[in-house]
Amino acid sequence: MNILKHVNEKNVSNMLVSYQEITKNFNITKPTTRVKIRKIQGLGLINVEQKGRFKSIKITSTGRRIIG
Questions:
Q1: Residue 16 scores a pLDDT above 90
Q2: Which pTM was predicted?
């Protein structure tokens, strides 16, 4: 839930969120970040877009409603 809120805050201010930023912010390992993002993505709350080597994370409308 905290990751979802963080992604929403950054998206509202038109900033891209990366896996690396989440890893640093929440002080968790890279594999843990990957698992958590995959789980949230599986629920349809976020989208992950590949831009070269950079993966940007954006919240979906369903994700916004849950935070709401």
A1: no
A2: 0.84
